């Protein structure tokens, strides 16, 4: 299609393009305009002088970042927690969707779906309070059960050897049901004639699940996996911020909470912006790389 044809098509559908204007204005004002603030990462930013009056220091903040012992620890924690969530939690919604698809009694199916969806609508503040109570070393339900079996109480949220496990478990408890919605929707789009043909050939439910359902939702799985890789350095800032304490900084402090503490706690805005920019650039590279690898080896990609 040449330029004249495209312009003619645009003029004939001007009302449809007009609908794009509010969204484009929103993106411009709230997504792209604030990106100007990344220059703080290259300054010794002073809140009173502003961006225009602060001293330009180039890559000094990034050199400080690379040589920071705290950042090495924080990056390790972030990668470990994110990898645990990917390896352990990513497959579970797929399995949940596959088995829910096999439930034939609609009342039972909808009841199960409602129950596993509900935690998603609770804020992390509420969930943290709930698990702080359940895991309390004095009167928490979990430790009461441990005592019944002759064990000693465990301070799950104040023990570095348990904190990451608690983070992964609570994240799964909250989001597994909600994440399964995407895969349930993908399953609903599979041609039902494939199942009928498989039944005629004598295939059972497990064989249908493996040979029809799973390949049918594979593009969705690839898409969600690439997006999840892109957020590898987002280990759940809001979640950890409401659950951790200085005792478990060694294993629980991640990039997001580190930026929060450095930026607001110590008012080191330039350094925290440099950390955030590093996080964003790595996430962008991971999305591009994940898409390229998926396109090369799986013949499926986002674009």
From TrEMBL:
Span of domain ABC transmembrane type-1: 75-290
Main location, first listed in the record: membrane
InterPro entries assigned to the protein according to its UniProt record, in alphabetical order: MetI-like, MetI-like_sf
Gene3D superfamilies: MetI-like
Compartments (UniProt record): Cell membrane; Membrane
Species, as recorded: Paenibacillus glycanilyticus
Topological relation to the membrane, as annotated: Multi-pass membrane protein
Family, per entry: Belongs to the binding-protein-dependent transport system permease family.
SUPFAM superfamilies: MetI-like (SSF161098)
Key words of the record: Membrane, Transmembrane, Transmembrane helix, Transport
PANTHER family attached to this UniProt entry: POLYGALACTURONAN_RHAMNOGALACTURONAN TRANSPORT SYSTEM PERMEASE PROTEIN YTEP (PTHR43496:SF1), PROTEIN LPLB (PTHR43496)
Protein's recorded name: Protein LplB
Sequence intervals crossing the membrane: 79-100, 121-142, 162-188, 209-229, 269-293
